[in-house]
Amino acid sequence: MKALLPMKARTNTSLGFSERAERIFAFVIPILSGLILLALERNTLVRARAKFAVKVMLPIFLVWALLAGLAALLAPIPFINLLGDIFRWVGDLVGWGFWIVWLVMLLGALFLEWHGRPRKFTF
Question: pLDDT > 70: what percent of the chain?
Answer without folding.
Answer: 83
